[in-house]
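Quick start: read one record
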Amino acid sequence: MSDHDKTPRQPSARTWTRLALGALSGLLAGGTALAVAELAAAAVRPQAGPVVAVGAAAIDRTPAAVKDWAIRTFGADDKLVLQLGILAVLTLFALALGAFAARHRRTGAAGVLVFGVVGAAAALGRPDSTGVTDALPSVLGAIAGAALLYVLVGLLPPARREAPGERGEQGGGWDRRRFVIAATAAAAASAGAGVLGRALSGVGGREAVASRENVILPTPGSRAPAVPRRAQVRVAGASPFLTPTSDFYRVDTALVVPKVDATTWRLRVHGDGVDRERTLTFDDLLWRELIERDITLTCVSNEVGGPYVGNARWIGVRLADLLEECGVRRPSQGGPADQLVARSVDGMTIGSPVEDVMDGRDAMLALGMNGEPLPFDHGFPVRMLVPGLYGYVSACKWIEEIELTTFDAYGAYWVKRDWAREAPIKTQSRIDTPKPFARPEAGTGMVAGVAWAQHRGIDKVEIRVDDGPWQEATLAAEDSRDTWRQWSYAWRATKGGHTLTVRATDRTGQVQTQRRTRTVPDGASGWHSVVVTVE
């Protein structure tokens, strides 16, 4: 055998064409699988769709440090980035599977069923799974995708040129028109199924939307005092004292925001030390005496100087009163439970110290935010708030169950993922203006920002320029010790580069620590600084 005979045979143009069209067929099959699954999920529930189920499973299994990085990097778009990443992986998988099916038709088509297995397993493994029906969207989508891939591959040109009589009437014939028609029809049908699925999912949430629109919040029996006139510093670039609802931060694990119908919503209270279990409706809460309070919420994922803190006016039911009616006692008064576990409709669990919930602070089941029923993004119909605690141990959205237990007996969602089980908010401060790398003009200019130490209050804020002495800033009027406090400082800026640093002192006398820590396991600490160049 000559050296020429030993040279590996290169794939022919016909082979490359078959592989390329196979990859296209795989992409169409993958799209069909997702579209059919989306349509089926509309009939089951949106959370059962494969992309949502797999995304939620990925969130559950992602290390805390990676989640923290995603929130810090992508902010409120972290869930969108995750879903786009899943779709990108599925696209590559579909292309590769289609190319493989071009050589191994049956095995390749059967490989699409992997979509169904992964999606079904993810949906059934969710804590909010409603049963075996949650697997249907992924299974039906995979069957549709496998069938389409098998059909399309059967219409591809043969890998070798066929002799006359082997296929059709002309040797090597390939009916390109049949393939194009089949592929186009599949793409159109997939698009239609996807659009229909989205529309039907929207219909499923209309009753919830209507229930929210019909809510009329009663006048609270205990009104919040008017915000002091001088609580807002009059400096351009400073945060508004009350955060508009549309600008309020959102950090949670829900890829699909739950749309809960207030007319069918129920809240069950049970567990250790509960002498009288109760199940309440939304109307039951509306008929109770409501309180109205200004409360600043802070996410534990908020880095030093970060945006995940906001102040709003909340209306709700005092949680301690409800617990006392059920016979619950604080641990310091002999109660057997030291943890209140709040469960959301999406399976999230949040554990709060019973002692803190019942120590007299304005812990509540919130129904309203800034004068309106809660938005769906922020927990409609009901969410929990506990002033002074980070959200992951206090602020359960879409709550449907309260269980009294102990920290030793049960670890809530975030505690199982290396976060601290108790997390009071740390004393923090932030410079809102000037912004980092700003170029203000020389002369007297204003530095302003916010400081917070919920349920303790802010007593002092200080500013340091470069390595100079600390100078006391002017504090705005205090609304309450559960809200942030604004501050300002008149700075005589000289030309050149400067570093501005802020620190706060809370009402207990605790000075904000300089020690820089990350958010895991119980919140970030350190001083916030900005670098500017004065011109």
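Confidence is low (pLDDT under 50) at residues 164-172.
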